[in-house]
Design a protein that fits this description.
The protein is of the alpha/beta class. It folds into 2 domains: 4-199, Rossmann fold; 204-296, Methionyl-tRNA Fmet Formyltransferase, Chain A, domain 2, CATH 3.10.25.10. It has 9 helices and 17 strands. It has helices at residues 10-20, 47-55, 68-77, 95-98, 117-123, 159-183, 204-207, 215-224, 289-296; strands at 4-7, 28-31, 35-37, 42-44, 58-61, 82-85, 101-105, 113-114, 128-135, 145-152, 198-199, 231-235, 239-249, 258-261, 264-268, 273-280, 287-288. A 7-stranded mixed beta sheet has the order 5-2-1-6-7-9-10, sandwiched between helices. Strands 12, 13, 14, 15, 16 and 17 form a 6-stranded antiparallel beta sheet that branches. The protein has a two-stranded antiparallel ribbon with strand order 3-4. Helix 1 packs parallel to helix 2 (47-55) and helix 5 (117-123) packs antiparallel against helix 8 (215-224). The chain is elongated, with a radius of gyration of 22 Å.
């Protein structure tokens, strides 16, 4: 039962792992070319390429799947339906029509179409999210939905935990969707425009914590960007403190001011306060907020005298 899977990210890698352990195991995996990253700027294969190699699945690293040569290779292995998840390239005509694709998207469409649906759902304090498996079309995440399933977002859950759960769910739904699609038994559901929102790519500004916001908003921002991107708090004019985990408190110091509570640093917010549970000072490894406070000297807070 030949098939093609197109994906690049760690999320897509998890989906591929679930798919490969099923009768829907693809014969060809298509991913983006190796990229330079990290301190040494060395070339690294995508998470999907690494996993596919370990699983013994043929890998096509394509800079343009719409180019004739790569498109021909995809169509050769394509089967009746292909699958795609967090691939990183636009699929254009004629490939879009030549090979129907089921797309795994981690949101309850039409809410959070776009690049960062998991982060945006957490940042906005959504209590529920889920996965949709839809038909890939030219419009951004706008195709008809084959399957959807909701899950609850824990109020303290971060991106790492939530995205992992969504990827596992996405893999299971994709298997079911591919089976139904080949049988012609999908009950397609058009999305409509009610409740439509866009999950814009995370910007540099999205990472900056503003103490004028409420403690709950700060907490949601931190957990949405942990562990993969990271939020940070300005410390004076030139310094910044990475913040990886917080706890919401009902009260604390004035917005933007620090206080000590039982050995832990507490930051005042526009409403309430947050305890800094895990932080990453400039040039150092992640540590507990209590250790950071001890290292500064008891009561020696940014912008305040010890």
């Amino acid at each position: 039962m030949p098939g093609v899977f197109l994906g690049t990210s760690e999320f897509a890698g998890t989906v591929l792992g679930v798919l490969a352990a099923s009768p829907e195991r693809p014969d060809l995996v298509v991913t983006l070319p190796d990229r330079r990253r990290g301190r040494g700027r060395r070339e690294h294969a995508s998470p999907v390429a690494e996993l596919a190699g370990n699983l013994g699945i043929e890998v096509l690293k394509s800079g343009n799947v719409n180019a004739d040569e790569d498109r021909a290779r995809i169509l050769e292995a394509g089967g009746e339906w292909a699958s795609i998840c967090a691939f990183g390239q636009l699929i254009r005509e004629p490939l879009l029509s030549q090979l129907p694709m089921l797309n795994v998207h981690p949101s309850l469409l039409p809410r959070w179409r776009g690049a960062a649906p998991v982060e945006r759902a957490i940042m906005e304090g959504d209590s529920r999210t889920g996965v949709c498996v839809m038909r890939l079309v030219a419009g951004l995440d706008s195709g008809p939905v084959a399957l959807r399933e909701e899950i609850v977002i824990d109020p303290d859950e971060d991106f790492g935990s939530l995205s992992g759960r969504l990827a596992e769910l996405g893999g299971r739904l994709l298997i079911e969707g591919l089976t139904l699609a080949r049988r012609g038994e999908v009950a397609w559901e058009e999305q409509g425009e009610a409740g439509l929102t866009y999950a814009e790519k995370i910007s540099a500004e999205d990472r900056k914590l503003e103490p004028s916001r409420s403690a709950r908003q700060i907490h949601d921002q931190v957990r949405a960007l942990t562990p993969h991107i990271g939020a940070w708090l300005p410390l004076g004019a030139a310094d910044r403190l990475g913040v990886r985990a917080t706890t919401v408190l009902d009260s604390g110091p004035a917005p933007g001011q620090f206080a000590e509570e039982e050995g832990w640093p507490v930051l005042g917010c526009g409403e309430g306060a947050v305890r800094l549970d895990r932080v990453q000072p400039p040039g150092k490894k992640e540590m507990g907020g209590d250790a950071w406070l001890r290292g500064r000297g008891q009561g020696n807070f940014p912008g305040q005298e010890p």
